[in-house]
Amino acid sequence: MKDTMYLKKIIDIADACFELGYWPLHFKTLTSIIILKPNKESYNSPKSFRFMVLLNTIGKLIEKVIGERLQFYLISNDSIHPSQLGILKQQLMIDVEVTLIHFIYSEWVKNVNTSTLAFDIAQFFPSLNNQLLLRIFDKAGFYFKVSRFFENYLVK
Known about the structure:
Strand content: 5-15%
Shape: extended
Radius of gyration: 21 Å
Strand order of the largest sheet: 1-2
Structural class: mainly alpha
Mean pLDDT: 77
Number of domains: 1
Helix content: 40-55%
């Protein structure tokens, strides 16, 4: 019973953030810590340390609620290209592999040479143009309050 009550409160906070178009500053505040990697001969190099960033736990839970809602909206409105399986919950790597193989074979049938480029996109998001993201939200038909929320969320 208490778990349900706490979950409802977290959802209420997420709803209020969206309604107000506001992400509280204390959810943006983070703490960085540095941990020594074990068994290093020397600690004269940055590679000898592990850097960790800790965020507010409630803020992370609310981000998860918001992420779930965005995913539901995108799926229900057919806004995700079939090849973008990596961002969806409950999508296995085998699904991505099967999709990739299907695309390659489809091109081979047409006598088209194919190639694949894979890269780590995690570093893409810090450099993402915030105004471009907001335009994408608008073009995708997101409710105005979603764009307004992310406009505030993305401000440091």
